[in-house]
Amino acid sequence: MNTQANQFSIKQWLHFGWRSFLASKTISILFSSLFCLIGGILYWLLLNVDAALVIIPFIAGFFLIAPLLIIGFQQAAAVLQQGKKPAFSDLIKIKGENNQGIWFLVFILCLCYFIWITDALVIYGLYFGVEPIPLNESFFTNPELRDSIISYLFHSGLVGIVMAIIGFSLGVFAIPLIIHQQMGFVNAVTFGVKKVFSHKWLMLKWACTLVSIMAFTLIVALPLLVIVLPILGYASYAVYAQIIEKLDIRKTV
After folding, report:
1. Which end of the chain is more exposed for a tag (fewer CB within 10 A), N or C?
2. Closest residue by Cα to residue 105 from 181, 195, 173, 185
3. Residue of 63, 6, 31 lying closest to 234 (CA atoms)
4. Against a cut of 0.70, is the pTM above it?
5. Any stretches that span the bilayer, and where are they (predicted)?
6. Rounded Cα distance, 200 and 69, in Å
């Protein structure tokens, strides 16, 4: 097991994602700009109603629906691997006849996202009521507010971690299996989850890499999402290609 895991490299996956992005940067930026625009509008709306703390659950919940956003990049990466140039339609249209499982997975992950946001808002209400909390120096100078914020982040974070694990385990392999191998939903999820746990330490490192990169982007440098999202989307195909299809991603793109 350890010998097999050693041949997989997160650095290679990210490098594959970067090369794939460069090979299709126009359509990739155009596609990811849609999500960046939505995120920017959401940030603006929440900040304008002094709901800065509510942004955090929405950011954390992004990791639940992120697997759905990479469906298009999975398809485009497969086209690139064949030595062809992907079109914008490869990013927005789910191909194949047996893609009902994708829509069911969309439903499950969106349901998890809804549960997470609802629970986070309930926890927010328990600590702060319905009053807005402005983003100012009181975050740090008011001991009572600071303790409430720490407790709020801790308890809401516990719920978020559980939901994120579910979303990651369901999506990381099941989505590409349905797309590329036209597997049924049950078989794809069962096989995909088994693969996650058979490479649990590698998948844990990959998940931590995704969380670190996306968290930094969403919190500190939101405009970079137009680049980061395609790179991680294409890298997710490299994970599938190496572990499931045993392809040498160094010789592609």
Report:
1. N
2. 185
3. 31
4. yes
5. 21-46, 52-80, 101-129, 149-175, 204-232
6. 23
